[in-house]
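Recall from the previous chapter that SMILES is a line notation for molecules. Here it describes S-adenosylmethionine.
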Amino acid sequence: MKTRLSKHLRCPISREPLELVAWETFERPLDAATRSRAASLGIEPAELATEVQSGVLLSKREKVAFPIVDGVPRMITFRAGVVAKFDERFGERLRRELPGYALPEGGALEGEEEVLRTFSSEWTGYDWDGQTYWNLNAQTWFKAMDYVLQLEPNQLDGKLALEVGIGIGGVADHVCRSQGAEVVGMDLGYAVDVAYRHFGANPFLHIVQASAFKPPFAKQTFDFIYSFGVLHHTFSTKTAFDAVGALTKAAGRFFLWVYSPNNETRSLLRRALMQIENVARPVITKLPEKAQALALAPTIPVYMGWQALQVLRGNADVRYGVREAMHAARDRLTPKFAHRHTEDEVVGWFRENGFGALRRGSEREVPSWLPVGFLANTAVDGVRER
Ligand SMILES: C[S@@+](CC[C@H](N)C(=O)[O-])C[C@H]1O[C@@H](n2cnc3c(N)ncnc32)[C@H](O)[C@@H]1O
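With both inputs in hand, we obtain:
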């Protein structure tokens, strides 16, 4: 993590500021363009150049030390595997140098441990080629995201943005570069390690591991928050919405995309697939890692065949092999939760949380190049009014 990130982070339990104790660091040389952009954002270049590989962030009130492991702050409030790994390597040093502090050991909320297991396999087992993003080529995916997020180039110039559930991190990196914004990407799963490996060198992009239910930021911190395909994978989309929405500044904007029940009834084929998912997912999610991979194997030729057909029809221009198919199958069939919400329901959440100027995806024009799923699901954004 860049030392800059410690300015934005707060204790996810008490929301108090944290003290950074850096144990292993390195310097990234910054080019002239980065220095001048930093100056325009009011950021000290040294805060972007110094990368902390390991250390802790101390919450003085809670007496908790949140570990920084492999360059990523782990703001998880329960004893996840990465916390245990840190304890093995640095536990003795922590007790010796920072007596009275303990690593996080609270309880996980329902489904959080499963996210660490299922989504982490989905991303860490995916040897991303940098070219294919889901079922599109990366540039087409980013263009589609710009359209759905309603972002014009440099619209967020000088602003602070948050992506909740970054997955592999390509969209956060794209938004950061094309918008002139400083961006924080957060995810509960070990996708953060893949994201850090690919995009950690972007000086204006920060990556943090944390849950949407206990975000490690003060309320009203961000000018723009977006979350795409994430909150419906939690035990309560609405509870996660409330927690994330509260991080939006007054006059800031919050964009949410979640699955819609309508998308699954668009065609007979989709209805049939939904029936299969409803039966298979609760079983597959409980299987151990290897058994999951075996259970998903028969779906691989189906995904690949479908994509090949899309390419033949001229609907897609993407390299789509076994790893992409396995990644898609995991995404569909391993999460513990995959709720579906209508646009009216989500609009109600925005209103209840003090957001106005609401825009509904269903009212937008769907350009011919935009894959239908982007707006056939529930996409709503609003501006915080109170
Ligand atoms: C389907 S992926 C979407 C990733 C990314 N937004 C994209 O479109 O490529 C869902 C992501 O949500 C993350 N996630 C699930 N529950 C979460 C939570 N409680 N807090 C933060 N991230 C969560 C998962 O780890 C996973 O990376």
